Amino acid sequence: MIEQAPASIFLVGADFDAAAIAFRLGGDCAVREVEIDEGKEEFLDTFEWGLYRSDLALARRGQRYRLYAADGTVLGEGKGPRRKRPFRWDFPDGPIRDGISEGADIRALCPKLQLSRVRRSFHLLNEDEKTVLRLWLDHVVVNGDNRGPVTQTQLHLVGVRGYDHEYQAVRSLLEEDGLEQPTDRTHFLAPVLSGAGITIGAAGSKTVVILERDISMRDGLRQVGLAVFGDIRRNLPGTIDDIDTEFLHDLRISLRRTRSLLSILARALPGVHCDHFRSEFRWITQATGKVRDCDVYLLKEEEYRSMLPVSLHPGLAGFVRGMRAFRNKEFRAMKKQLKSPRLVRLLKEWQHFLENLPQPADSTEQDRPCRGFAARAVKKRFRKVLLEGEKLGPDSPDTMLHALRIEAKKLRYLLEFFYSLFPAEEVGLLVKHLKKLQNNLGDYNDLAVQQAMLGTFRSPGRVDDPKQVLAIAAALGGLVTRIAERQQQVRGEFEATFADFAGDDNRELVRRITATAGDGQLSAGHGARQ
Predict the structure, then answer these.
(1) pLDDT (tens digit, 9 = 90+) per residue, 236-256?
(2) Are strands 56-61 and 64-69 parallel, antiparallel or unpaired?
(3) In the chain, what's the furthest Cα-to-Cα distance?
(4) Residue 427 backbone phi and psi in degrees, to 5
(5) Residues 223 and 127 in one domain
(6) pTM of the model
(7) Are the C-beta atoms of residues 417 and 261 closer than 8 Å to each other?
(8) What total of structural domains would you count in the chain?
(9) Which of 114, 118, 160 has the alpha carbon at shortest distance from 16?
(10) Is 209 within the bounds of a domain?
């Protein structure tokens, strides 16, 4: 987060006279116009509005880019990439690349908003002609959401260090005039986005579902299912267009959550048959797996380079070229599946199934509270995690660690699905502890998969130079060795990590969570301490 000076935004009329501010303040102060900037700007951000959430905005005119702070201050500008949806690494070293590193990270910057703007910049000067306040008037015209052009004029106040009195005095004058003011320190694009009918927030890998506390089990499961279905719909176009790797990553999370939900539905609603959907969602999940694996390896290029001596870097470069070629081949196959009539039909059938979720055969089950069901499911899954974990010893095979990882993931999905039915602070704490266990198990599994892939990788492209073949083999051999060392380190951390998760604090936490949802205490046995 970039530190900002005191700032405010007011919505004013197009004929607002900035010079009148000095007259109203009295004394020997004056307002001087210092610059006029006019033109069309296209604002870019990630799918999840990462820059906006980081109090930034990135605009471009042709190849000229400008990075703004939330108050509208220009943080940096210069020439940038031509591509329609650039990445952080496409920018040259400098303030823009550095500034967007957190908000953009590995996501593509996509066009979000186009507007025409006239910015008139002013300085408020005191009797010594020192600048004590910066002001500017932004007159913007943006295409609204099916409402035609939206015109808006914003007055920005940005304080100057050491002159807080002047900032507060001008702000008080404008407040006395009853001018509309978004929340103090709001993003300068907020009123523009609002005027254009653009809502921030409905994006990401998963939607938080807010269920009414007394909702029935059937209605609660329907709402959860439709929310996860919405996540699939949101991430599918970006995956097909290959905008950035996170669309596929988030799509796969939504598919896995859907498969977990299918297991819950089969248990919760007797007589509801989900075999068809299980089979079809398993198919599309598997169809996306190889491309995601390629993305993981390509995203680790810099990490892999840091593991190897410089002498092995040419071989790593050869591996990366081969991996990109392999990904291109697999992406074409995946894209064909994602655009297939089979998937179109599956999503249509799934939406219809969720919207018309069958009633339980037993009429007494129809109004069964979702709250109690969720509590029992969480308690049962928590016990299963403890049971699987307590079976493990230092020499346990990887298959047992994998089984525990799956159980932990199912518990995590349950907590996410029914989050709103539990005490937010306590379930948040349990999820935090669960993440530590999942990270350990996930890292161990990923390192095992990486070793297997690197040890057997064959580039789809022919490599005729024997020296290049040997260089690639040497680089991959070096990586496998380093990764194996890291895997053993992660495995050595498992016992302590699991012991922390299985401790009395978390057992008591689950008791409190399930009790508040109307369920009983975590009973002794089956993973509970006597």
Answers:
(1) 999 999 999 999 999 999 999
(2) antiparallel
(3) 84
(4) -70, -30
(5) no
(6) 0.85
(7) yes
(8) 3
(9) 118
(10) no
